[in-house]
Write a structure and sequence with these properties.
The complex is a heterotrimer of chains A (about 200), B (about 775) and C (about 280).
Chain A lengths: L1 E5 L4 E11 L2 E7 L5 H8 L18 E4 L2 E4 L11 E4 L13 H8 L9 H14 L5 H7 L11 H37 L8
Helix pairs in contact in A: 2-5
Chain B lengths: L1 H5 L17 H5 L15 E7 L5 E7 L10 E3 L9 E2 L11 E2 L6 E2 L5 E7 L2 H9 L2 E6 L22 E9 L2 H7 L2 E8 L12 E7 L6 E6 L4 H12 L6 E4 L15 H12 L5 E4 L2 H7 L6 E9 L5 E13 L10 H9 L8 E10 L13 H19 L3 H8 L8 E2 L5 E2 L4 H12 L1 H14 L4 E12 L18 E7 L5 E5 L8 H13 L6 E5 L16 H27 L7 E4 L2 E4 L5 E4 H10 L13 E6 L5 E14 L4 E11 L7 H20 L31 E4 L16 H4 L1 H13 L10 H11 L1
Parallel strand pairs in B: 1-14, 12-13, 16-17, 22-23, 29-30
Antiparallel strand pairs in B: 1-7, 2-6, 2-8, 3-7, 4-5, 9-17, 10-15, 11-12, 11-14, 15-16, 18-19, 20-28, 21-22, 21-27, 24-25, 25-26, 28-29
Helix pairs in contact in B: 9-10, 9-18, 13-14, 14-15, 16-18
Chain C lengths: L6 E4 L3 H10 L4 E4 L5 H6 L7 E4 L12 E3 L2 E5 L4 H6 L4 H8 L4 H4 L4 H7 L5 H8 L3 E6 L2 E6 H4 E3 L2 E2 L6 E8 L3 E7 L9 E8 L2 E7 L6 E2 L1 H8 L4 H11 L10 H21 L6
Parallel strand pairs in C: 1-3, 2-3
Antiparallel strand pairs in C: 4-5, 5-10, 6-7, 6-10, 8-9, 11-12, 12-13, 13-14
Helix pairs in contact in C: 9-10, 10-11
The chains are: A alpha+beta (about 200), B alpha+beta (about 775), C alpha+beta (about 280).
């Protein structure tokens, strides 16, 4: 479904695209030239995605497209039909509880003005999904596609490191719980005469 | 210390702890409110048509292609655009010039706004801008402040010098003649700028008639009250009819402490289109081309030392590139006067003469940028000391030690008559060296010299940061206002919660948090029960805003005074309500306690309810309500001492530098929120390193900016910036909170530190910045 | 910084894409990853009337390359991120890891980078270093262009307006070395160098010194005659005419080319062959 609209000198067509954003389906009419970043901000009111340079250097506009970090200033919304997009608005729980990476950014003072923060947080979420225990040098390298002008990066690196450690601790605790439970099950099973012994 | 950045946050938050920042939750969840996020009914969008010539007469501007209703176009000839910005200074030797809202008659730099077009969205505004055709008649171009002027940038200054001043003390000629050694250095620093991640942005809405309207201007400005003051004057409105709102702002660093011609143009356009909110969001190319930059300087300096290394005199000249306009309100003198006034830094010297000039050129205007001029002067000064040490065969650290202002010297009167009230430089230096582990590094350096391996160098810089300037030392060159004070209202609402209305602004420095800590402690309530509002001229009485590392000292001071007043009122009321002597009562965590009893006798919420709703219970003479508004002016300033020491490793085959260690120790006075203070220091260090090694706004001889995108203007990433080791010596300043400013110090050291480290490693003098691998490699080639 | 208007065509097949290109009289642009093209559009330095999007074409993607006879074949829409993690072509994986940043590599493609032909980028040098055979499809059918003939100058290739790059066939070097110098992590290279041992001998390729990546015959000859690393480096400096620009002088570029070739030679000589 397309409609024609006259701008100053050229006729452009408007196309409907279907996007799943933070788990919610949206159908929006876009011009081919509208970047994903502009459509998120201007048409969908998701202004947490910030445009810092609009030419793919600063990383502020990074969102996850089908789970992969993507510069929303370097793709057109019309290309994103039928994709799943995660923006910064989609990370915290409905009651406001922060995502562990957001929580770590706050705890470690990984943000000052907050303008670059959404891009950093989403990049970090992807990093930890692919590399659960990066060291500081790795974090520095992997986040180098995002510019921050306020923090000197120290707090950001610490935040990602902390999020990784805390995640590992949560997982370790889960494993320990599982081991304890298994041991308990085994122990109770040991009381039964039919249990195999070696 | 890096460690304090990792420190856990709490919800308490007395001064000296790091409670969770009040700003964090909304910024982390994408719910910040930046100017570019604002959407209003009937809003339209603006794009500027910018000059493609650095210097040219504007012969004609043709916009006949555009429908005037769909796409109104504004130029300097549009009605109402006769006004302009005049940055004023009472200094002799200052030439006042005008900056028009849109270029009038001629354009003075490539990127200057010549026309503005309106459309329904930014895409269409840029389409329309392509329909505006400007016919130019090029004029000769001057790009460097120290080149022969080709053609006056402003008719009022045929030699392009907008400000000249000579600072002089003692008899420097005699002192240098008698010196054991005299060293000479000529250094050139690189133009770079703040480049906050959020560029400039504004939304202007005019409601009512042109003569008697009401203007609301949302702007990412650091100085909303000053902006209101001048807009009211230029638009001939009562100040009460102008409201300036600075919501969340994505970094400033001085770049946004300026009233820009685009701001004025947007408001003038809004007056012509009443009822239509007009939005302009600067893109990065516009920012690089037209926002203010800084540090485009050249210094020719001589220093004399006696045989023990004491500085006996400094003589020299400095040229600071002003760009095309004298920036409002700071004037063409902002950098030159700071350069001449603080060149000697934390070093004792009696004989001094330095002639400085601010020179107009056909480049984008220079303005305030974090550290104003001192990243350049500290670099120049430390170069002199390194040269002096080499000439005398002294250790580079020792020569600094013998010249630093010490505790016994304060108050020390600088040769430029500023008074240094701190003498803690040597203490900072000792702490740096201890943390660095100098002896081990020196041993490793020697080992590599003997056995081969990449050379190591150790560099250092000592500096003072002028912070919290009161009326006697006020920021800026004798402008028609003094920036020494700030107002703050502290109000206890009927529910006992506290609202703070501050005149200060924040662009990431966490003032919402810091002021809440100050007020919570002074009133005696919980940090969580304090809400801080700023950046709206309709809410706060008055404030100059954010610049010169003044917020903690002056806004914090005002908040403290107002909070103390409110607490006293509350205690007076409570004394009546609970029949106790005010002297026996105290207010803690929002409850009243009588001396000697652990049980609270009542709560602030109870008293506040009485103050607002039950006047029948008020004591005689007690005015209803619980609030106070106070101004604070520290009169003098609070110097903050700082020292940075770094170890670097060079790769002679490429000229690349690897930073091995970076230690910074500062005297921030009493630290309110350690995380925020360390964050300010780390951020300013990173900007300093960026300016020293990567960032450079390069113009060609025709005045075209060659670094017009972030592919060419290189800001450092997390992969380039090293870990920082930050330390403090906390020597409370002479103000009620004991605080000193910390916003700028970090930027002052890096160029000097790196140059000094290179000199230490391979004996090469770095006389030009940025210190790129190629520059270093070429110097090494010359040496080979 | 917003694009001028254009029409959008999501190609349903290579034939379909070629048909649209053919009909548009050179006014169309192909978009692959778009990581270099979109900035040019946003700055209005390119204003095509129609954008032909290859992202829907499964036939141009290759989740794993086809490997036969010491050569690996990649679909042109292979993302840099995929290239970086595949294990069939070690040099391609190494060089892809140097391209930009994660968010660029998830989107940018091998074919797009070759068609863009930035001399400071990794992919063009990779193609020349590995004797790439580039399959292109146009209105007149399919043809194969050797990498040596593909790059025509700064941002210029042998691709006709109606042609699309479909397959990149790279020799898998027995041994290789790679070195790059950039101002910041992830930046386009100031200079980069590859040294590859192919079936027909050594190749030495340098990027970032001329409008296209260049093969250095003298250095290759020196390598083949077992010259020392330093001798190879010397021939590099003598045989290059590098350009000056904002980021580096010709002199520095030449010296760095020699230095990077030395490093790549050392690395290649240290490693075991992977295709032997």
């Amino acid at each position: 479904m397309t409609t024609d609209r006259v701008t100053t000198d050229r006729v452009t067509t408007e196309t409907k695209v279907e996007l799943s954003i933070n788990g919610r389906r949206h159908v929006v009419g876009v011009e081919p030239r509208h970047t994903l970043g502009d459509v998120l901000r201007e048409q969908l009111g998701l202004t947490g995605t910030h445009l810092g340079c609009e030419h793919g250097v600063c990383g502020a506009c990074t969102v996850l497209v089908d789970g992969e970090p993507t510069r929303s200033c370097l793709v057109f919304a019309v290309q994103m039909d039928q994709t799943e997009i995660t923006t910064i608005e989609g990370l915290a729980a409905a009651d406001g509880t922060l995502h562990p990476v957001q929580e770590a950014f706050s705890a470690c003072h990984g943000l000052q003005c907050g303008f670059c923060t959404p891009g950093f947080v989403l990049t970090a979420v992807h990093l930890l999904a692919t590399n659960p225990a990066p060291d500081r040098a790795t974090i520095r390298r992997e986040l180098s596609g995002n510019l921050c002008r306020c923090t000197g990066y120290v707090g950001i690196i610490s935040a990602v490191e902390r999020a990784a450690v805390e995640r590992a601790a949560v997982e370790r605790a889960a494993v320990e719980r599982a081991v304890t439970n298994a041991a308990a099950v085994a122990a109770s099973a040991a009381d039964e005469p039919s249990s195999p012994r070696h | 210390m890096v460690a304090s950045l990792d420190q856990s946050t709490t919800t308490a938050g007395p001064i000296g702890t790091s409670p969770r920042r009040k700003e964090d939750h909304r910024l982390l969840t994408g719910r910040g409110r930046f100017v570019s996020d604002l959407q209003l009914p009937r809003m339209r969008h603006v794009a500027f048509v910018r000059s493609t010539y650095a210097h040219a007469r504007i012969v004609s501007i043709d916009c006949n292609e555009l429908d005037p209703i769909d796409h109104p176009v504004f130029t300097a000839l549009s009605p109402g655009f006769e006004v302009g910005l005049f940055a004023q200074s009472a200094l002799p030797g200052y030439v006042e010039t005008e900056q028009p809202p849109l270029a009038r008659g001629k354009t003075r730099f490539a990127g200057e706004a010549i026309a503005a077009v309106v459309a329904d969205d930014r895409y269409q505004a840029e389409d329309a801008a392509e329909g505006v055709v400007v016919d130019y008649e090029p004029l000769p171009v001057t790009v460097r402040a120290w080149d022969e002027p080709q053609h006056p940038v402003h008719d009022a200054a045929l030699d392009n010098v907008l400000l000249a001043r000579t600072f002089s003390a003692g008899d420097v000629d005699a002192a240098l003649a008698a010196a054991a050694v005299v060293v000479r250095r000529e250094v050139v620093t690189n133009r770079h700028g703040g480049n906050p991640m959020e560029g400039r942005a504004g939304v202007a809405l005019w409601e009512g008639s042109a003569r008697d309207g009401h203007l609301t201007f949302w702007s990412g400005t650091q100085i909303p009250h000053l902006v209101r003051n001048l807009l009211a004057e230029l638009l001939e409105l009562p100040e009460s009819n102008v409201r300036v709102i600075a919501p969340d702002v994505g970094g400033g660093f001085g770049t946004k402490a300026v009233l820009y011609p685009e701001d004025l143009a947007l408001c003038l356009m809004a007056r012509s289109l009443p009822g239509t909110p007009l939005k302009w969001v600067e893109d990065r190319a516009e920012h690089l081309a037209a926002a203010t930059a800084a540090r485009d300087h050249r210094y020719e300096l001589e220093a004399g030392f006696d045989a023990e290394g004491h500085l006996v005199g400094i003589r020299g000249e400095a040229w600071c590139n002003v760009g095309a306009y004298s920036v409002y309100p700071w004037t063409a003198g902002i950098e030159a006067l700071m350069a001449g006034g603080l060149l000697t830094g934390p070093y004792k010297v009696e004989n001094y003469r330095c002639s400085v000039r601010g020179v107009a050129t056909n480049t984008a205007p220079s303005g305030p940028y974090r550290g104003v001029a001192r990243p350049a002067t500290v670099y120049a000064m430390e170069c002199l000391l390194d040269s002096g040490a080499r000439a005398l065969g002294m250790d580079s650290i020792d020569i600094r030690r013998v010249n630093l202002i010490g505790p016994d010297d304060v108050p020390y009167r600088l040769p430029t008559r500023l008074i240094d009230d701190t003498g803690h430089y040597a203490e900072c230096l000792d702490a740096c060296i201890e943390r660095l582990g100098l002896d081990e590094l020196r041993a490793e350096q020697a080992r590599r010299r003997a056995e081969g391996g990449k050379p190591i160098g150790i560099g250092l810089a000592c500096y003072n940061e002028l912070t919290g300037l009161g009326r006697a030392a006020s920021a800026g060159p004798r402008m028609p206002f003094r920036t020494g004070h700030e107002a703050c209202t502290v109000r206890i609402n009927p529910d006992g919660k506290v609202v703070v209305l501050s005149g200060v602004t924040s662009q990431g420095q966490g003032l919402e948090t810091t002021l809440a800590q100050v007020v919570a402690e002074a009133v005696g309530v919980n940090y969580d029960d304090v809400e801080v509002r700023y950046g709206d001229t309709d809410q706060s009485l008055w404030g100059f805003g954010a610049f010169s590392s003044r917020q903690a000292v002056i806004a914090g001071g005002a908040a403290n005074l107002a909070a103390v007043d409110v607490r006293e009122s509350a205690l007076r009321l409570a004394a009546e309500l609970y029949e106790a002597s005010p002297d026996d009562l105290r207010l803690e965590n929002g409850s009243f306690y009588v001396a000697g009893s652990p049980e609270a006798v009542g709560t602030l919420a109870d008293a506040a309810r009485v103050a607002y709703l039950e006047s029948n219970r008020l004591p005689p003479g007690f005015e209803p309500g619980l609030d106070a508004t106070r101004f604070y002016d520290p009169v003098m300033g609070a110097f903050a001492a700082g020292v940075q020491v770094a170890a670097i490793e060079l790769d002679p085959s490429t000229g690349e530098i690897t930073i091995l260690r970076w230690v910074c120790v500062e005297d921030a006075g009493r630290v309110v929120h350690p995380q925020i203070v360390d964050g300010q220091i780390a951020g300013s260090l990173a900007q300093g390193i960026g300016g020293a090694q990567y960032e450079h706004l390069v113009y060609d001889d025709e005045g075209n900016l060659r670094t017009g995108t972030l592919l060419d203007y290189l800001m450092p990433t997390s992969a380039e910036i090293p870990e920082f080791e930050i330390g403090h010596i906390e020597r409370p300043a002479d103000n009620p909170l004991g605080v000193r400013g910390v916003g700028e110090g970090g930027t002052l050291g890096p160029a000097a530190v790196l140059a000094s480290a290179v000199a230490d490693a391979v004996g090469i003098d770095i006389d030009q910045l940025p210190l790129t691998p190629e520059r270093l490699w070429l110097a090494l080639e010359d040496q080979r | 910084m917003k694009s001028a208007p254009f029409d959008y065509h999501r190609a349903t097949s290579v034939d379909d894409a070629v048909a649209v290109l053919t009909a548009s009289d050179g006014e169309a642009k192909v978009i692959a990853g778009g990581q270099s093209l979109v900035p040019l559009l946003s700055m209005r330095m390119a204003q095509p009337t129609v954008l032909v999007d290859l992202n829907g074409l499964a036939e141009l993607r290759s989740d794993r390359p086809t490997v036969t006879d010491g050569r690996a074949r990649f679909g042109s829409m292979t993302r840099h991120a995929q290239l970086a993690i595949q294990t069939h072509h070690g040099l391609a994986a190494e060089m892809a890891g140097w391209i930009g940043h994660t968010a660029i590599r998830t989107r940018g493609t091998l074919g797009g980078s070759l068609a863009h032909a930035d001399p400071n980028a990794e992919c063009p040098a990779l193609a020349l270093a590995c004797d790439a055979a580039l399959s292109v499809q146009g209105a007149d059918g399919v043809r194969t262009i050797p990498a040596a003939e593909f790059f025509a100058g700064m941002l210029q290739t042998a691709l006709a307006d109606d042609e699309i790059l479909t397959v990149i066939d790279l020799a898998v070097p027995r041994r290789w070395g790679f070195a790059e110098l950039a101002r910041r992590h992830g930046d386009f290279a100031l200079v980069l160098a590859t040294v590859t041992e192919l079936a027909d001998g050594w190749r030495v390729v340098v990027g970032g010194v001329e409008g296209t990546p260049v093969r250095l015959a003298d250095a290759e000859a020196a390598l083949s005659s077992d010259a020392s690393t330093d001798e190879v480096g010397r021939t590099v400096e003598e045989s290059i005419v590098a350009y000056d620009d904002l980021h580096a002088t010709s002199r520095y570029r030449r010296a760095m080319a020699a230095e990077l070739v030395r490093r790549a030679v050392d690395q290649a000589r240290r490693t075991q062959g992977e295709a032997s």
